[in-house]
């Protein structure tokens, strides 16, 4: 029985540490504040804002209840184990095993409790150095991520896609909707490197190609970013499609250029020019929001003496198809030899290792 008590005590220590790390007590205080606001007589005078508040409240309550319930269950198991006789050992062993699995899952989910981890995501892929091979590589990544999204129950919608000159694509922007989309996909942001025998080289030589993945939380109207009309240029053009009836005959696609930063956002999937403009503006605000957040984090890191380098050449993951088969994540050192499975969307090992590394930071 002592070993069971010791095991349960370790689970309690882990959960207490994680609850402190993600500030459950602070979230309880936030719930109280939101409930007080919801009880005000004029709360529903602004229905959209009120609805967002209620959604935030529901998410917080669900999160806090999950952690508090687990902590209480572990405490009950410890209390029972301390007074139980040998007849209950088998039952307590089963409970300890069940709790172990829950603690492991919760420790992984602990890194998905950030401010925006619950949000939908805007996910973009850009071909980098490597010419036609890089554009082909960008399309391979598009397929890989669309497969991962499908396998994990996410709704993916292509907002804009620019085809390559000869093959592949230059860039694609995807809306990803589903549980903790931004939280899970943050492991994929960065430069991805491919090494293979080029199908576009008549001499069949080995080529190295790069593509860059970008990610923003799709928090839409929650973003408090002001964009002045004088700071943007809006261009319209005819949306591309599969041909025939799918090709728009009017200039419904919209391109917005933010002049101060040079950011360019395009959207062509909506039915009307006005809808494309609204969605493009939401994406622009999300990118400006993320840019400002990254700037603040970089300044803080510089004050701490950390080396912050988000250079293009710093690949996060390498996919080697020749002379051997291996996908290696350079941040976590996870290596997988089944490259076909990875390129078919099986990214769970990389995502989990990244999140566990963050828990350990």
Your description of this structure?
By secondary structure, the protein is α+β, with helices and mostly antiparallel strands. The protein folds into 2 domains: 111 residues, Up-down Bundle (Methane Monooxygenase Hydroxylase, Chain G, domain 1), CATH 1.20.58.410; 179 residues, Alpha-Beta Plaits. It has 9 helices and 11 strands. An 8-stranded mixed beta sheet has the order 2-3-1-5-4-9-10-11. The chain is flat and about 75 Å long. It starts with a helix and ends with a helix. About 5% of the residues have low confidence.
Question: Describe the biggest sheet?
Answer: 8 strands, mixed
Could you tell me the number of beta strands? 11
CATH class of the largest domain: Alpha Beta
Strand neighbour order, sheet with most strands: 2-3-1-5-4-9-10-11
Gross CATH architecture of the largest domain = 2-Layer Sandwich
Oligomer: single chain
Helices and strands in order, then pairings?
Blueprint: H1 2-21, H2 24-38, H3 47-83, H4 89-109, E1 121-127, H5 131-151, E2 155-163, E3 169-177, H6 181-185, E4 190-197, E5 206-217, E6 232-237, E7 253-258, E8 263-267, H7 273-303, E9 315-320, E10 326-329, E11 335-336, H8 339-343, H9 348-360
Parallel strand pairs: 4-9
Antiparallel strand pairs: 1-3, 1-5, 2-3, 4-5, 6-7, 7-8, 9-10, 10-11
Helix pairs in contact: 1-3, 1-4, 2-3, 3-4
């Amino acid at each position: 029985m002592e070993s069971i008590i010791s095991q349960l005590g370790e689970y309690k220590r882990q959960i207490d540490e994680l609850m402190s790390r993600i500030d459950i007590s602070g979230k309880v205080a936030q719930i109280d504040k939101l409930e007080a606001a919801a009880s005000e007589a004029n709360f529903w005078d602004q229905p959209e804002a009120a609805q967002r508040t209620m959604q935030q409240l529901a998410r917080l309550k669900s999160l806090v209840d999950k952690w508090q319930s687990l902590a209480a269950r572990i405490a009950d198991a410890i209390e029972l184990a301390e007074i139980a006789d040998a007849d209950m050992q088998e039952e307590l062993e089963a409970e300890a095993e069940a709790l172990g699995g829950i603690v492991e899952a919760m420790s992984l989910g602990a890194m998905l409790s950030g401010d925006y981890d619950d949000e939908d995501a805007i996910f973009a892929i850009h071909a980098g150095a490597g010419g036609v091979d890089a554009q082909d590589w960008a399309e391979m990544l598009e397929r890989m991520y669309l497969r991962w999204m499908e396998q994990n129950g996410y709704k993916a919608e292509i907002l804009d896609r620019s085809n390559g000159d000869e093959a592949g694509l230059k860039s694609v922007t995807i809306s990803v909707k589903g549980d903790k989309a931004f939280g899970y996909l943050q492991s994929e942001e960065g430069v991805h490197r491919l090494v293979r025998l080029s199908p576009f080289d008549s001499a069949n030589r080995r080529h190295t190609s790069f593509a860059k993945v970008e990610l923003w939380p799709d928090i839409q109207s929650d973003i408090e970013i002001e964009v002045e009309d004088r700071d943007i240029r809006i261009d319209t053009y005819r949306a591309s499609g599969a041909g025939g009836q799918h090709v728009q005959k009017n200039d419904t696609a919209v391109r917005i250029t933010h002049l101060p930063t040079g950011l360019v956002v395009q959207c062509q999937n909506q039915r009307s020019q006005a809808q494309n403009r609204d969605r493009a503006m939401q994406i622009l605000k999300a990118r400006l929001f993320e840019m400002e957040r990254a700037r603040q984090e970089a300044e803080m890191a510089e004050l701490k003496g950390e080396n912050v380098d988000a250079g293009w050449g710093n690949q996060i993951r390498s996919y080697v198809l020749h002379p051997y088969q291996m996908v290696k994540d350079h941040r976590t050192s996870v290596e997988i030899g089944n490259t076909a499975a990875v390129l078919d969307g099986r990214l769970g090992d990389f995502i989990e290792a990244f999140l566990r590394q963050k828990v350990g930071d």
